[in-house]
Design a protein that fits this description.
Keywords: Coiled coil. With about 400 residues, the protein is an alpha/beta fold. The chain is built from 17 helices and five strands. A five-stranded parallel sheet has the order 2-3-4-1-5, sandwiched between helices. α11 links the parallel β2 and β3.
Length: about 400
C-alpha cells in the first residue's frame, strides 16, 4: 500500500473492506457465540464439554493460546494429567454449509453456518491477498456478502461499525491512526491465525503420509508408474488419468513418497486457491485427487483453475523446481473437449495409464496380484494356475 495520505480510490476500497473483516466481523461473531454459550454459564459449558476439549487438544486443532484462555475461566476443572495447555468447545446445532466451512457459500444460501463461513472465507482471502486495491464492482460485491452475513448474525440489524467504516476519512489523519495502530494489530492477529492453520495442515498431512507409506508396501512398479516418475522430474505439473480402479491414486502417492525422500513436503489439497495459500519456501509437492470432479467435469472447478492459472504458474516458478503438482483425473473427463481446450496448466502434461505405452503387461498384472496376496499373507492359498487365470 502507498503512503496513507496518497491512497488511490482502489486502495481506499480495499482498506474499508479490510477493516470490515478485521474490525467489525470479530465482534459480531463473538456476540453470536456469546448468545450460544452465555459467558455466565461458560465454566459449566466448558466442564460439560471436557471430553470434546481434550479430544481437540489431542488432535492439535486448538493452539496453546486458546487453551490458556479457556483454562483461565473461573470455575473450570481440568484433568490433572493435562500438559501445558490446549482446548476448544463444539458449536452444536450449526448446519454445515453446502460448500463446507472452507469455501464461499452459494449466493442464495441462507443459514447461520453460511454466514460464518462467509466471514471466514473473506478473512482468509484477505490474508493471502497480493493486491491491495479493489475496483468498484469487486468492492460492492464482496462488501454486500459480508454485510449481509453480519446483519444476519446481528439478529437482522446492520451493525453500526459497518456504517462507521463507510464514513472513515481515509485521506486524512484517521488514515494514519488506522494504519499505524489498528491495521498493525489486525495483521498480527491474522499472522497467528495463519500459523495455526498451517500447523493443523502439517499435522493432518503427517498422518496421511504415514498411512500411504503402509499402503505403498504392496505397490509394484510398472511401465506407467516409471513414466510418471520420469515426467514429474522433468515438469512441474502432471495429471495422471485412466478409468476407475486402475491405480491412478496409488501411482501418484507412490511417486509422491519417492519425492518425499528427495526432500519434498507432501501437501494434499483440493483447489488452486489451496496451493496459493499453503505455499512456503520449502520444496513442496501438491497432490489433488479427481482434480476437476469425480464422475463428470465440474465447470466451476475448471473455471477456478483458469482464473488462477497465472498465479499458479508464478508459484511453480519460484525456487527453480521446488514446487510441483500431481493430480488424478478420470479418463472420460480428460477426453472432454472443454478440458482439452482449457487455458490451464493442467492439460499441458497428461499421462494416460491405459495408453498402449503404459498398459499393464500380463507379467505386471501377475506381480501386482502377488504383491497384494503377500501383504495379506494369502500367497500360499492360490495356485500358479489360479494366478494365471486371474490376470
Amino acid at each position: 500500500m502507498t503512503s496513507t495520505s496518497q491512497l488511490s480510490e482502489g486502495e481506499i476500497k480495499f482498506t474499508r473492506f479490510f477493516l470490515l473483516n478485521f474490525k467489525v466481523s470479530p465482534d459480531i461473531a463473538r456476540r453470536y457465540f456469546d448468545g450460544v454459550f452465555p459467558p455466565t454459564h461458560l465454566a459449566h459449558i466448558i466442564n460439560n464439554s471436557m471430553h470434546d476439549i481434550m479430544k481437540l487438544n489431542k488432535s492439535r486443532i486448538i493452539n496453546k493460546a486458546q487453551l490458556e484462555i479457556l483454562r483461565s475461566v473461573p470455575g473450570t476443572v481440568w484433568p490433572s494429567y493435562l500438559p501445558p495447555k490446549h482446548v476448544g468447545t463444539k458449536c452444536k446445532g450449526l448446519a454445515t454449509p453446502t460448500n463446507g466451512w472452507d469455501k464461499l457459500p452459494k449466493p442464495n444460501e441462507i443459514s447461520l453456518g453460511a454466514d460464518l463461513a462467509t466471514l471466514k472465507w473473506h478473512r482468509n482471502d484477505l490474508a493471502h491477498a497480493t493486491v491491495t486495491c479493489m475496483d468498484s464492482n469487486e468492492f460492492t460485491d464482496k462488501w454486500n456478502q459480508v454485510e449481509k452475513a453480519l446483519t444476519s448474525l446481528n439478529r437482522g440489524q446492520k451493525p453500526l461499525g459497518v456504517i462507521d467504516i463507510l464514513k472513515y476519512d481515509l485521506d486524512g489523519e484517521q488514515a494514519n491512526i488506522l494504519a499505524n495502530a489498528e491495521l498493525k494489530q489486525m495483521k498480527e492477529e491474522l499472522y497467528l491465525d495463519c500459523e495455526k492453520e498451517k500447523e493443523q495442515i502439517e499435522n493432518t498431512n503427517t498422518d496421511l503420509v504415514e498411512a500411504w507409506i503402509k499402503d505403498d508396501e504392496s505397490f509394484f512398479e510398472t511401465q506407467g508408474s516409471k513414466l510418471v516418475d520420469d515426467k514429474i522430474n522433468e515438469c512441474n505439473c502432471l495429471v495422471v488419468t485412466s478409468n476407475s480402479g486402475l491405480g491412478k491414486t496409488a501411482t501418484i502417492r507412490h511417486i509422491a513418497l519417492k519425492l518425499k525422500y528427495k526432500g519434498f513436503e507432501i501437501v494434499p489439497v483440493e483447489s488452486p486457491e489451496d496451493i496459493i495459500k499453503y505455499k512456503t519456501n520449502k520444496k513442496q509437492l501438491f497432490l489433488i485427487d479427481d482434480v476437476l470432479g469425480k464422475y463428470d467435469l465440474s465447470p466451476t472447478r475448471l473455471d477456478e483453475w483458469e482464473s488462477k492459472n497465472e498465479k499458479i504458474i508464478s508459484c511453480l516458478n519460484i525456487g527453480g523446481g521446488s514446487k510441483k503438482i500431481m493430480c488424478t483425473l478420470r479418463l472420460q473427463i480428460a477426453r472432454n473437449k472443454r478440458f482439452k481446450n482449457a487455458s490451464t496448466i493442467l492439460n499441458k502434461t497428461v499421462i494416460n495409464l491405459q495408453h498402449e505405452s503404459c498398459a499393464l503387461s500380463k507379467e505386471e498384472k501377475k506381480n501386482i496380484l502377488m504383491s497384494h496376496l503377500r501383504r495379506s499373507n494369502l500367497e500360499n492359498n492360490i495356485t500358479t494356475e489360479e494366478v494365471a487365470k486371474n490376470v
